[in-house]
């Protein structure tokens, strides 16, 4: 990119985050919260990645559409994202489904979630719209995608991942020509089209789109008048533009933000218990694939005021210790041993307990002599003294939500049903 002619486009853009997803594959983790509000990485929520990417990219106007079980998400954004100031030409709007178009109509799809608030968007008069999914973990500078969108003259630019071709069967796949112009859009194809320069790979949609605002308003209005539409970007808007306009693919590696320690472009849909557990546990590695310690691209979140973590007791069989683990503020490791585990804020691990491969959400109490292996523990759970998880697969499956690979999700209602 030529710095002499380069002017940031992000200052003329608005980011619009679609954060209404149920996240049903996360099972009981989303019983009380939407998927974007699920905790991640010791301090953050999943939505903080999309929001931080927008902020770090230079975008200062942000809207978030919420719908499903939104209280936890809204409270988090009110606490952690209230620093954007109108007097600095900044804005942060939380946009719950509020039947603004019809007294009987909630958000009927991702496109409808934008269309119902198009008057609010137009009041800010952004030149460009960056539409984002609020439930993925990645670091990306949207400025590069904006620049490609303007340079190409496309009606829409679609963020895409390069994935092994036969692993793309669960995605919306972009069939592109040699110029990365999208010539067809295929939803979850059995035989995904390869990329011209990498035939063994396919371009999978990330759910990230860039539009000129005026064009987006026009296409959303047309879609809203179509009674057969699903009101969805992936199912309706993008295929319509591919067929009747111009659409270009933006490859994620061109705008992925990597520190010196990150070797590959990192993007995760932590939409299953196993994927969620793995992505959190990955952070305990010496050189994790995702560098959350990169100060040049911080992950902004609600900065809760907490005391430091503390490790106490130094007896032979009762030593507060943590190996290859991430431990957040206000945790007290009291004669407990942690190995390859990630603890969120406010966890108490009591004497003689052992955690191995544990993802422990905020304010959990772990009783004495508990032995927990390969678990995700929901927030505010009290683990009984002596509970053993991770040794007897059949018993674990009866008591908890156990995945095929042996990861157990533990919630308080599950604990309450135990006959101990």
TrEMBL record:
Xref: PROSITE patterns: ADP_GLC_PYROPHOSPH_1, ADP_GLC_PYROPHOSPH_2, ADP_GLC_PYROPHOSPH_3
A Pfam entry, by short name: NTP_transferase
SUPFAM superfamilies: Nucleotide-diphospho-sugar transferases (SSF53448), Trimeric LpxA-like enzymes (SSF51161)
Domain Glucose-1-phosphate adenylyltransferase/Bifunctional protein GlmU-like C-terminal hexapeptide positions: 307-410
Keyword Nucleotide-binding annotated: yes
Keywords, comma-separated and alphabetical: ATP-binding, Carbohydrate metabolism, Glycogen biosynthesis, Glycogen metabolism, Nucleotide-binding, Nucleotidyltransferase, Transferase
Gene name of the encoded protein: glgC
Domain Nucleotidyl transferase: residue ranges: 16-284
BP term (GO), one: glycogen biosynthetic process
The name this protein goes by in its record: Glucose-1-phosphate adenylyltransferase
Cited function: Involved in the biosynthesis of ADP-glucose, a building block required for the elongation reactions to produce glycogen. Catalyzes the reaction between ATP and alpha-D-glucose 1-phosphate (G1P) to produce pyrophosphate and ADP-Glc.
Catalytic activity: alpha-D-glucose 1-phosphate + ATP + H(+) = ADP-alpha-D-glucose + diphosphate
UniProt GO MF annotations: ATP binding; glucose-1-phosphate adenylyltransferase activity
HAMAP family associated with the record: GlgC
Family named by the database record: Belongs to the bacterial/plant glucose-1-phosphate adenylyltransferase family.
Quaternary structure (record): Homotetramer.
Annotated organism of origin: Pseudorhizobium banfieldiae
InterPro entries listed in its UniProt record: ADP-Glc_PPase, ADP_Glu_pyroP_CS, GlgC_bac, GlmU/GlgC-like_hexapep, NTP_transferase_dom, Nucleotide-diphossugar_trans, Trimer_LpxA-like_sf
Record: residues binding alpha-D-glucose 1-phosphate: 107, 172, 187-188, 205
NCBIfam families for the chain: glgC (TIGR02091), PRK00725.1 (NF001947), PRK00844.1 (NF002023)
Record site feature (Could play a key role in the communication between the regulatory and the substrate sites), residues: 67, 106
PANTHER family documented for this protein: GLUCOSE-1-PHOSPHATE ADENYLYLTRANSFERASE (PTHR43523:SF2), GLUCOSE-1-PHOSPHATE ADENYLYLTRANSFERASE-RELATED (PTHR43523)
EC number in record: 2.7.7.27
Pathway: Glycan biosynthesis; glycogen biosynthesis
